[in-house]
Structure formats: structure tokens, C-alpha cells
Inverse folding.
């Protein structure tokens, strides 16, 4: 059985009974107001936090029964913003993504090098591979960190607000990349703030107060009544070319 | 931060310079003193072509010991900074060195009261191994106390503040222990200030032993420190057994600190300055930064000791005074630069 599946997750923190399934080959966006528990849920599904109740299954097996390196080869996790080493070379950062395959002292082989090249190319980070992370713009840096996550060649990619702090052009780049990765067969789960970006995902799950409030295709989930319940009465939705567009009615 | 020269060239240049300076520190350190020797005499004595007891019995162990202490402090500083992802962490500022000094002093007191033997550092001459192990426990406990007081490692300011508090309290306690025997205070005081004057071959052997024990695991964990710079959750998501690795890093860095303190007292700022200066030249790749910090720490302390021995000739300053006088302003500069950025 494929997929990454959360069943009956209660705790830690805000989560109050979450069921959610990510399938290979789809991009699933997690949407919801601040403090709803999206990031916590993402970390639980990445195996970084243990739920108080319930369990996460990775391809049918409880996540806790995987060895940590094995889990790292299947699941890649990219946290939100935060710390990054200014003085590390882009290439070394991306190569760190191979650690789940190499362990502590493994030597890099042909396969590792190919995976790093692929990740650098796929994200467009190859152009600045020889530079220090601290010399890049926010958008470039985010592509490098994404390449680091991809270098493991994971089957599932879990991202916490990958477009925050990026300008529109780079947001569009990341969004297009996530779609492409899903089309290549990866399961992509991303926390997003912007409903218009979530509208580009294959599926959207709306999280509120520790529960999944709605789940399904964007055109069905991103309805005006639901979004008004989430974000207040000023939110309007109008469909265009088969996609919901969300805006604020001043 | 820029690396404008081709990177590999720049990196090999940095390492070549470090080795060259290390050699220079060794030769000058052995040559200078009450009787000044010519560099040629020094080299011939070092190569065993000429017997010279001043070199082999007195100066060589002191200089070698000093270089090893510097190497231990340099690596420990780099490791603390990487482990705690905190650029101001170092054995001195984390309270770790004071913990080791307190434990070593306590060890001496327990062993023989504050006997004349202690004043002459017989304890350290004859029992450097057990003194280091005792100091190791002290360093470890002090570091843990600092971490608890700071509520973790994330907040740079709190971490340094807690480290300074722990360090001050332990230094006070050390002074109290020493004051129990006022006659000897002068000699003992010189020890807590950081002093290489008491180095003999036993100290060199002890330092070598502990460096051989603690250095290889640290150097092999350079990549783990690199991964940690991406944040703890990312490192964990890469599958690394982080709790065990962090403990190993902490133990190794504390052991290095303790081995330095047990032989030479508290020598501040070497562990801060050496990794910082090298980070600007090499970047933040810990696979390079750790070995470079060992060399850099050795060079720094080697030259600081030259100053300590020549500034007030024929008297001698404790080398810890020199490193503190040089390192204090450097620390302020770092604080000022960080504030400028924030």
C-alpha cells in the first residue's frame, strides 16, 4: 500500500484527531489559519514528533518501525525559514541531503553524485553551486535548501511554507517545481499560507483547531463559505478558468 | 563573507600558512628565553644533531605543551560553536574551563591539602592524567549547568550570560580553595591565570594522550556539525542519531578543555578567536574548520606565549593574561558586529 498516512493523530499540542493521507504522485496543500496545527502535523508526519495517540503509516508500515536512515531515504523534510549556515558552500549543503544513504562515514559513490546533480538541476541551484549560502538572495537560498531535500531522492517531500519570504517570481518557481515533482511520482505535502497557491495543488486539506475541516480538490474545498469561516467575512472567491481565485474585499 | 580566490587554492594556502606559522612558533619559542639561542642551534638540537639540555629539558616541553594546549582549545571552541550553533560559545565563555579549573583545584586539595608540592605543581607534574579526568567531570558539569541556566542553546545572549555567571561562581570557589593557604597564593594564582611555565614532559604526554583520544572523533564528525547548521530538525530528518552524536561531541570538547586546563590553567579566548578568524577565511565547513582550528589555536597560543615571555623580560606574564588582553577586544568587536547586523 503506497502513501503516507496519518490516522487518528491526537497531540502533540494543537492536534485533536487528524486523519490525512498523502498519495504518491500528488501535491497536497495544507491550509489553515495561524496556530491551527499545520506545522505540527507536518512534523508528526515527518516522524520528528511523536503523537500522543494515533499513528503515522509509511507505505503501510508504522513510521516508528523504520530505522532513522531508512526513514530519511523515503521522507525528506524542509522546515520553515529559520537557520541556515551562511559559510557553507551550496554544493556541500546539497550533498548533506545524501546523509540518509551514506550514514556518518560512507563514501560518496556514483549514485550519490548523480542524485546531487539532479537535485541541483531540478531546482535551478546549479548556477550558484560554488557560492556560499550567505551570499545568495532569499529565493536562491530556498532553491538550495529544496535541492538539499531532493538530493536524498525521497518518495515523499514534506515542506513547511516553502514560499514564505519569496517574491512573486520565486513563489511561482517553487510552486511550478512542486507540481513537476508530483508529476514525476513524488508525494508532496506542503503547508501554505496563501489560498491562491493552494489552489494550484492537486488536493487541499484545510486544518482548523487541530482537525481537518475539509479535504478534496481545490475547486471544491476553496469555497467562499468555508474560507469566510476560516478567515472572516472579507474573503471573496471567484472561479476563473476552472480554478478558484481568492481575494480580500476591502 | 567572500571567497574570491579559487576555493581549493585559497584553502590550501590557509593550511600551508598555518603549518608554516606553527613551525615558526616552535622554533622561536625554543630560541627565546633567558639564554637566547640562534635558530640554527634550535633546529640542530631539535633534529638531535646537537645535545642541548636547555632545549630538550626546559624549552621544548614548554613550547610543545603550549602548542598542544592551544590546539585543544581551538578545536574545543570550534566544536562548541558548531554544536550549539552559537558563534560566541567557547570553553572559556561557556564556563567549561572554569569548571575544569575548579575540579582540578579541588582534586589537588583533596589529594594533599594545599601542600608545598601543590605550589610547585608537583600534582600536575606527577599526576596529570588523573587531574585531567577530574577536570573533565568539572568541565562537563559546568557546561551542563550553563545550558540549563540559559534554557537551551538558542539564545546567544543568554548562553554567554549563563556561562559567565557559572564561570565567575566557579572561579570564586576556586579562589576560596586556594586562599586556604595564603603563603602559596602567588604561585597558585599564576596557575589560574593560565600559565605554561609549569609544563614538563609529563604534561606533554598527558596532553598528547587526551588529544589522541578526543580529536579523532571530533574530526570525523565534521559533517554532523555541518548538518547541525541546517537546524536540529533537519539534521534529525536526515536520519542522524542526533542525541548520541551531540553527547559524543560534548564529551570530546569537554575532554579537550579539561586536558588543557589541567596542564595550563584557564586560558581564555583562544577557542573563540581561532575558529572565528579561520571561519572568515575558510567558510563554515567543519570538516576543514576543525583541523584548521587545531592548527590556528596552536599558532595563536604559541605566539601569545612568546609575547608573555618577552614583554616584561626578565619577568614573565601568565599567557592567559596576554590572550585575555587580545581576546577581550576581539569579543567586543564580534558583539558590535552582530548588533550592527541585527
Amino acid at each position: 500500500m503506497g502513501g503516507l498516512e496519518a490516522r487518528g493523530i491526537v497531540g502533540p499540542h494543537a492536534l485533536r484527531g487528524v486523519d490525512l493521507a498523502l498519495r504518491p504522485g500528488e501535491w497536497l496543500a495544507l491550509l489553515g489559519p495561524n496556530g491551527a496545527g499545520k506545522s505540527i502535523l507536518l512534523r508528526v508526519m515527518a516522524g520528528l514528533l511523536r503523537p500522543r495517540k494515533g499513528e503515522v503509516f509509511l507505505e503501510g508500515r508504522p513510521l516508528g518501525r523504520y530505522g532513522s536512515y531508512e526513514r530519511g531515504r523515503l521522507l525528506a523534510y524542509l522546515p520553515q525559514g529559520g537557520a541556515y549556515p551562511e559559510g557553507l558552500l551550496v554544493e556541500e549543503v546539497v550533498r548533506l541531503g545524501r546523509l540518509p544513504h551514506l550514514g556518518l562515514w560512507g563514501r560518496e559513490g556514483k549514485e550519490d553524485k548523480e542524485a546531487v546533480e539532479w537535485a541541483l538541476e531540478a531546482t535551478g541551484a546549479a548556477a550558484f553551486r560554488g557560492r556560499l549560502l550567505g551570499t545568495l538572495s532569499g529565493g536562491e537560498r530556498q532553491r538550495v535548501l529544496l535541492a538539499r531535500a531532493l538530493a536524498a531522492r525521497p518518495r515523499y517531500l514534506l515542506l513547511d511554507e516553502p514560499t514564505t519570504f519569496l517574491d512573486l517570481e520565486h513563489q511561482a518557481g517553487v510552486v511550478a517545481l512542486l507540481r513537476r515533482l508530483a508529476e514525476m511520482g513524488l508525494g508532496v505535502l506542503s503547508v501554505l499560507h496563501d489560498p491562491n497557491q493552494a489552489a494550484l495543488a492537486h488536493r487541499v486539506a484545510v486544518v482548523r483547531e487541530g482537525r481537518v475541516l475539509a479535504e478534496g480538490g481545490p475547486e471544491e474545498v476553496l469555497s467562499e463559505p468555508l474560507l469566510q469561516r476560516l478567515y472572516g467575512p472579507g474573503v471573496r472567491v471567484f472561479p476563473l478558468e476552472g480554478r478558484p481565485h481568492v481575494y480580500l474585499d476591502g | 563573507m567572500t571567497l574570491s580566490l579559487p576555493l581549493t587554492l585559497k584553502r590550501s594556502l590557509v593550511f600551508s600558512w598555518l603549518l608554516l606559522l606553527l613551525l615558526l612558533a616552535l622554533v622561536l619559542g625554543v630560541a627565546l628565553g633567558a639564554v637566547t639561542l640562534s635558530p640554527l642551534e634550535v633546529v640542530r638540537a631539535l633534529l638531535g644533531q646537537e645535545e642541548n639540555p636547555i632545549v630538550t629539558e626546559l624549552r621544548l616541553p614548554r613550547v610543545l605543551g603550549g602548542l598542544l594546549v592551544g590546539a585543544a582549545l581551538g578545536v574545543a571552541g570550534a566544536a562548541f560553536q558548531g554544536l550549539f550553533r552559537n558563534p560566541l560559545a567557547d570553553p572559556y565563555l561557556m564556563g567549561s574551563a572554569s569548571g575544569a579549573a575548579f575540579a582540578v583545584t579541588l582534586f589537588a586539595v583533596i589529594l594533599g591539602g594545599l601542600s608545598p608540592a601543590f605550589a610547585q605543581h608537583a600534582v600536575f607534574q606527577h599526576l596529570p592524567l588523573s587531574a585531567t579526568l577530574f577536570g573533565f567531570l568539572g568541565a562537563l558539569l559546568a557546561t551542563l549547568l550553563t545550558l540549563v541556566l540559559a534554557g537551551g542553546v538558542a539564545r546567544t545572549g543568554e548562553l554567554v550570560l549563563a556561562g559567565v555567571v557559572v564561570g565567575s561562581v566557579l572561579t570564586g570557589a576556586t579562589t576560596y580553595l586556594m586562599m586556604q593557604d595564603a603563603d602559596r597564593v602567588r604561585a597558585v594564582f599564576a596557575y589560574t591565570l593560565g600559565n605554561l611555565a609549569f609544563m614538563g614532559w609529563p604534561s606533554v604526554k598527558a596532553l598528547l594522550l587526551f588529544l589522541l583520544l578526543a580529536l579523532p572523533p571530533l574530526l570525523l564528525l565534521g559533517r554532523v556539525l555541518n548538518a547541525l547548521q541546517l537546524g536540529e530538525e533537519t539534521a534529525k530528518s536526515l536520519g542522524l542519531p542526533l542525541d548520541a552524536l551531540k553527547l559524543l561531541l560534548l564529551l570530546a570538547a569537554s575532554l579537550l578543555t579539561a586536558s588543557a586546563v589541567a596542564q595550563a590553567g584557564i586560558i581564555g579566548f583562544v577557542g573563540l578567536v581561532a575558529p572565528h578568524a579561520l571561519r572568515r577565511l575558510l567558510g563554515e565547513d567543519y570538516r576543514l574548520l576543525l583541523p584548521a582550528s587545531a592548527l590556528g589555536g596552536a599558532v595563536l597560543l604559541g605566539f601569545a606565549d612568546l609575547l608573555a615571555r618577552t614583554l616584561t623580560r626578565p619577568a614573565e606574564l601568565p599567557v592567559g593574561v596576554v590572550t585575555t588582553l587580545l581576546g577581550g577586544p576581539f569579543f567586543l568587536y564580534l558583539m558590535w558586529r552582530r548588533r550592527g547586523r541585527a
Q: What stands out?
A: Chain B touches chain A through 26 residues (CB under 8 Å). The radius of gyration of chain B is 20 Å.
